[in-house]
Write a structure and sequence with these properties.
Number of domains: 1
Number of helices: 9
Helix content: 55-70%
Largest sheet: none
Order of helices and strands: HHHHHHHHH
Number of strands: 0
Radius of gyration: 18 Å
Shape: globular
Length: 231
């Protein structure tokens, strides 16, 4: 029986703290336990698709790919870490994973907190807490990915293209059926202070959180290039 590969942990580039906020020891641990991380993400992906079944049942089949955003992001990162562990690292998948885990890892806590009263009206506190904590953990693991990619521009371009299309069909031009974003537990036109609606708050968060990982990805790329040039 062949052994599961045990990749060597790559060296950590000298990056500003705001690009690599995790302690080196935590990054190293995640990379050493890469197959555990992959397994957890695959379990999370399976749970996520199960969670989205009611919404998928109401969505035209052709648009299903745009609905389960969080489980797709965890599938991306499971694939990214798994390929790296097998010596077949793929920048395109890794950068998609970076964008997805930051965007969805922050968007879900955003709506959970902003619409907390509505969520808790039909979600058990334990499930609410699990959704909040597990999505924040997606952000944590995304900040390990700089150890296995230099964020090449073509890969960043693909990630921006995918999440721009996803953002478009989720909130602005659904193409088939209604908006395809994750369902929120209140009517779109429910008002908030300042005349803002629930739909606008959800969409605003999604737009901002598509731009933030772009900033971090390009910032990391530039910092790595500067480090290389100075050595």
């Amino acid at each position: 029986m062949s052994r599961v590969p045990r990749p060597a942990v790559p060296a950590r580039d000298s990056l500003p703290w705001w690009l690599a906020p995790l302690p080196k020891a935590l990054e190293d641990l995640g990379l050493r336990l890469v197959w555990v991380v992959v397994g957890i993400n695959l379990v999370g992906t399976a749970f996520g698709f199960w969670y989205y079944l009611p919404q998928l049942s109401e969505t035209p089949l052709v648009m299903w790919i745009f609905v389960p955003d969080s489980p797709l992001a965890t599938l991306f990162i499971a694939g990214a870490f798994g390929l790296w562990a097998m010596g077949r690292q793929n920048d395109y998948l890794t950068v998609l994973a970076f964008f997805g885990n930051i965007k969805l890892g922050l968007w879900t806590p955003w709506v959970l907190v902003v619409f907390a009263e509505s969520f808790l009206a039909f979600t058990a506190p334990a499930m609410y807490t699990f959704l909040l904590v597990s999505h924040l953990a997606m952000v944590v693991q995304a900040f390990v990915l700089h150890r296995i990619t230099d964020f090449p521009l073509k890969a960043v371009g693909l990630a921006v293209a995918w999440y721009t299309v996803d953002l478009t069909v989720d909130y602005f031009i659904p193409i088939v059926g209604g908006p395809h974003h994750t369902s929120i537990p209140l009517a779109y036109d429910v008002g908030f202070p300042g005349g803002t609606t629930a739909f606008q708050l959800a969409a605003w968060g999604a737009v901002i959180l598509t731009l933030i990982p772009l900033f971090w990805a390009l910032g990391t790329r530039i910092a790595k290039l500067e480090t290389t040039e100075s050595t």
